[in-house]
């Protein structure tokens, strides 16, 4: 799983569209849907709920360590929470961020050494999405290193205990940041959300303390822990295939499709978040009992030959209807809110890197290493390159 999850997903998919599995690190038993059609259907199935209170394992509010957020809620709460922030992430609002994203990428590329060695995760894939979401939310630069280490432990846990401690630290950090915004005010998104957390806010715009914490947590963590894996993992696939790299360098018109192919091939969020069966649900002839936990295998579904022939091949010239047939951003009501932003950041990072460092290549002397992963997220921890 760690070295080559697609081989495992492929092996499972060849044996059926749905399986009972045990999730590593948390040692949790659940159902994993790996068929493409079944995955799409599961993401639209309103009997499979996001609210953990539908889980048979749910006993207390342990699942709320970092507040209750839109990804862990169902309508009508989900609808209200999503509506509060969706205007910030529309394609138009995100297009307006282009100059700032380009400037950030330029600054990061300026700081790279002339010939290498360099690590493209540390110098580009990580700091870019981190800076973008922290600026949007108003996280000061001095806090970002701490924030980064807690966040990383929460989404790529080294143990259940360490993840719990990091969630506690993050929760404390957000509470403090929120208190600062409440006292000082500000123009960032977090300050706007703090203004919704008052008795004067209209009912449909009101955020409880717990929801405010959950929103800050979700946006900040989802805003960078995912995109780092797309930029890092996608660049790795390209750098492994010099002919693909050359095709892209020769035709910048392929850039957008290359990002989709990266999403399809890498699928950096490998599974959905947990769904919980509110009643028994039959998927492909197998009955998932009420209270069971379900993961939708987004990475597995993306490699279905039924939607993209030769699914394991990475090809930036694939017809767009194939490269876009992935479920990398999910599907249905919880479809990724940040998809336009993630696409923009990745396209600019990739385009600028190839333009300014056309000789970029993998460093033959230093291996790529991978982040620890409990199954949901996957991406390289280091991506060593040279530019000579
Ligand atoms: C390559 C980058 C990204 C990938 C692959 C990705 C993937 C996903 C996926 C698969 C979901 C749905 C999960 C589920 O249904 O269980 C999701 C939801 C979400 N994503 Fe992203 N994401 C990315 C970047 C971002 C960014 C930059 C943001 C910025 C704020 C963001 C914010 C969110 C939010 C708020 C949700 C929850 C939406 C809801 O519950 O309605 N994501 N993302």
Describe the fold and architecture.
The protein has a five-stranded mixed β-sheet with strand order 1-2-8-5-3. Strands 4-12-9 form a three-stranded antiparallel β-sheet. It is 48% helix and 10% strand. The chain is built from 17 helices and twelve strands. α7 (127-137) packs antiparallel against α11 (209-225), α12 crosses α14 and α12 runs parallel beside α17 (339-356). It is α+β, with helices and mostly antiparallel strands. It has helices at residues 5-15, 36-44, 77-86, 91-95, 98-110, 120-125, 127-137, 144-155, 160-184, 189-196, 209-225, 227-239, 242-250, 255-266, 298-302, 320-323, 339-356, and strands spanning 18-23, 28-33, 48-49, 118-119, 275-277, 281-283, 286-288, 293-296, 361-362, 369-370, 380-382, 384-386. It has one domain (5-386): Cytochrome p450, CATH 1.10.630. The chain is globular, with a radius of gyration of 21 Å. The two termini are 34 Å apart. A hairpin with a 2-residue loop joins β6 and β7. The structure holds protoporphyrin IX containing FE.
């Amino acid at each position: 799983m760690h070295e080559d999850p697609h081989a495992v997903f492929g092996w499972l998919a060849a044996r059926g569209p749905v399986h009972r599995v045990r999730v590593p690190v948390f040692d949790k038993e659940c159902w994993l849907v790996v068929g493409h059609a079944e995955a799409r259907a599961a993401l639209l199935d309103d009997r499979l709920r996001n609210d953990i209170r539908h889980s048979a394992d749910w006993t207390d509010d342990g699942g709320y360590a970092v507040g209750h957020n839109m990804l862990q809620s169902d309508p009508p709460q989900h609808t209200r929470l999503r509506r509060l922030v969706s205007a910030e992430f529309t394609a138009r609002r995100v297009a307006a961020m282009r100059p700032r994203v380009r400037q950030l990428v330029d600054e990061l590329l300026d700081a790279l050494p002339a010939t290498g060695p360099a690590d493209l995760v540390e110098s580009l894939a990580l700091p870019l999405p981190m800076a973008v979401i922290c600026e949007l939310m108003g996280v000061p630069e001095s806090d970002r290193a701490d924030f980064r280490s807690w966040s990383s432990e929460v989404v790529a846990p080294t143990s259940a205990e360490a993840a719990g401690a990091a969630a506690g630290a993050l929760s404390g950090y957000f509470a403090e940041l929120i208190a600062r915004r409440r006292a000082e005010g500000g123009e960032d998104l977090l300050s706007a959300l703090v203004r919704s957390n008052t008795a004067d806010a209209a009912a449909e715009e009101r955020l409880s303390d717990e929801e405010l914490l959950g929103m800050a947590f979700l946006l900040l963590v989802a805003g960078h822990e995912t995109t780092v894996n797309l930029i890092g993992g996608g660049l790795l696939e390209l750098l492994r295939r010099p002919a693909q790299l050359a095709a892209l360098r020769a035709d910048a018109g392929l850039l957008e499709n290359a990002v989709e192919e990266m999403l399809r091939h890498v699928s950096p969020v490998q599974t959905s978040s947990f769904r919980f069966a509110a009643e028994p649900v039959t998927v492909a002839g197998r009955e998932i009992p009420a209270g069971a936990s379900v993961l939708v295998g987004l990475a597995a579904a993306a490699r279905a030959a039924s939607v993209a022939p030769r699914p394991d091949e990475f090809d930036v010239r694939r017809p767009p209807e194939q490269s876009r047939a992935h479920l990398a951003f999910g599907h249905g009501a919880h479809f990724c809110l940040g998809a336009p932003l993630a696409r923009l950041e990745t396209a600019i990072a990739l385009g600028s890197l190839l333009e300014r460092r056309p000789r970029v290549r993998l460093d033959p002397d230093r291996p790529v290493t991978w982040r620890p992963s409990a199954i949901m997220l996957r991406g390289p921890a280091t991506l060593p390159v040279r530019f000579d």
